[in-house]
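Case study.
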Amino acid sequence: MAKKSLSRRKFLIGAASVSGAAILAACAPQVVEKVVQQTVVVKENVQQTVEVPVQQTVIVEKAAPAGPVVLTAAHAWEAAFEAHQEEFDNNFMKANPNIFIKRVNSDWSAHNQIVPTWAAAGELPDIIYVHGSRAFPWNKEGILITVDNYVSADKPFDVAGIWPEALKLYQFNGKQFEIPYDHGPVIMGYNMDLFDAAKVEYPKPDWTVDDFVATAKKLTIPGKQWGYSGYYGNTFDLGNEIGIALVGGWGGEVFTDDESKLVVDSPESVEALKWWADMYTQKIVPNAAESTAFPSGVWVAGAAAMFGLATWGVPQMHDFGNFKYDVAPWPKGPKGQKTGSFGSGYGITKDSKNPDVAWTYMSQYLNVDGMNFMWASSGRGSPARLACKETYMKAAINPPNAGYFYDAMDKYAVTGHPYHTAASGEVADILGKYCGLVRTGEMTPEDAIANIVKEANPKLAAAAAG
Amino acid sequence: MTQALSTPKKPKLSPLRRKEEFEFYLSILPWIIGFILFTGGPIAASMFFSLTDWTGLTTRNFIGIQNYIAMFTTDKQFLTVVANTFYYSFASVILGTIGSVLVAILMNQKIPGINVFRTIYYLPSVTSGVAIAIMFMWLFNPQLGLINYALSLLGIQGPLWLASSTWAMPALILMSLWGIGGNMIVLLAGLQGIPDHLYEAARIDGANKVQEFFNVTIPMLSPVIFYVMIVSIIGSFQIFDNVYVMTRGGPGDATRVLVYHLYQNAFEYQKMGYSSALAWILFLIIMALTYLQFRFGRSWVYYESE
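After joint prediction, the assembly is written out as follows.
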């Protein structure tokens, strides 16, 4: 009798059948086990009239969940800060045994791309991190819910204790959608070691832009050390929090308040921007080629005496800066003192099955104690509450005069536009493109401003009309 | 007397033939399912989305061909983007094809250790795109990069490369030569398929090496060169990784290419509908170029069987 063996054809058929079955099985909708048990106490007030339809008022009182609830929270922390987040979550779960927190952490760029993907799939986590620049487009698309009802019912949360400048970043159509956790200004950082070595006096609290540029000149050694290196390495920049810092001291603005157009071509703004661009001509700041020699940034490498610094830049200085540094107020311009501020927050998404429980987490995460634990004590960012200032000032990683951050928020920092237009992504790109050409010396500031206005204003107008 | 026309009867399939047909379809079923789910389906969906103002989130309204009209009216960058893509593609394909032909000829020598050299030339084409981009950012660094250092040894001051709107695109084009190994392998196979008797006949007729190259090698290799050019053009039009990592379309719009523009519109400007339309325009451009290549290929590609 002939021995039967497995032919190639039979093998291929078997493999194809198995693959087809596997693919079909993988495509089957997932069955999600729900372990939520909630006790809901409902009070009804029913009014009846003869001639009008029955009106029913249903008041739902929140109760602690009777069974375990899984809340998912999406963050955008760097790896070093995750442990701190985990500690908060563990403490929260101990205090709230029926709530289990499931964390999802991505890097900042990935988070901002994954959220729209989740939204399109209807699979948003319960709570998500929202950067100020994403608040408007995400709120406009309805992927987060308003927290007005929660905030007004939760008196201990004390929303009034949060800076209005910070809150307004997360308002849409007059409603509050997210709650900020930090909001910080850009002020001036300075390398104390370089100042000491050159025997130059530290910046005074009431210094002006003329004092600033005179100081920068004293601290510039051509080709080796620069008096100023800009904000994240960019001296000429019109991004959210730095644009207004550059022009505000001259009485200029970058956007109109309603963000329907750019006004960076006003005489005041042009004068300011020419002043800042002239620092390249004076070689007080590194040019584009010189900057590329410092992958971590000229300022972190200790080759720049002064640099624009926001509160969220402090951890980087602590971790990577190998020199003593401090901060000073943003210098006063000819017509006053102004700088930009910005921040981030958290919100409850439309796909949350447990928004009430999500608010329970958010209210503890973003109240005074939560902000003190997460951001004030760690120095990770300046919390959006004045009540957290004392704790923030004691954070080990902060520079000696970190109080100047709060001074700026109190006195002269404004939230930097744009944050209320659907065209913010495109406009940011246009601003970055032409500012980059000024930094490489390929375009004058006047031409850059003219091109910015020509290209961006139609987009802003269309977004305002739409 | 008219005879009624009858359609010839389709021959009945034998049981063995039916069984073979069934096995055929079963064998290709996994690929078909995968194609429909992960390629065909999304392609059809993107055609639909290109006719809407979908933001990628929730807003989606049918707007007809407005996205396609907007490319030529409201999108001031579109023509620049297309021009940049053509510039990159044509330059990199021409240089890459010439380079890979020359390297393939070098690798076709019968010398000891030639396999080592073939491996060395092929390895770059299997390395990670992002890692290569980061490496080249350092090579092109105007202050610290090896390229400007090498130029300085010749007394030439190197340009700003990626920080210059004039030199950024040439930098990307030069970088594309890093991956000629893949085409080199294909051309090497083509070279090794050229019969020796053709070279012998040419030598007998008094041809020198250069004449052999242009009259024997190139014509016999022309079908492979044609294939390499088609595949290279299709690939070069879709350049994205290097632009995203190295230049982000800058300085200015100097290196803004079509796929990067598409990506920005989709994920940064939240214009998923418009970016779907851009994707279809890219498809049409590539199709048109491929058609033109086939059309004009008839005049210079030599097929031995014809």
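Observations recorded in class. The interface with chain A takes residues 23, 26-30, 33-34, 37, 55-59, 74, 76, 141-144, 160, 163-165, 249-253, 264, 267-270 of chain B (CB under 8 Å). The two ends of chain B are 48 Å apart (CA to CA). We will return to this complex in the next lecture.
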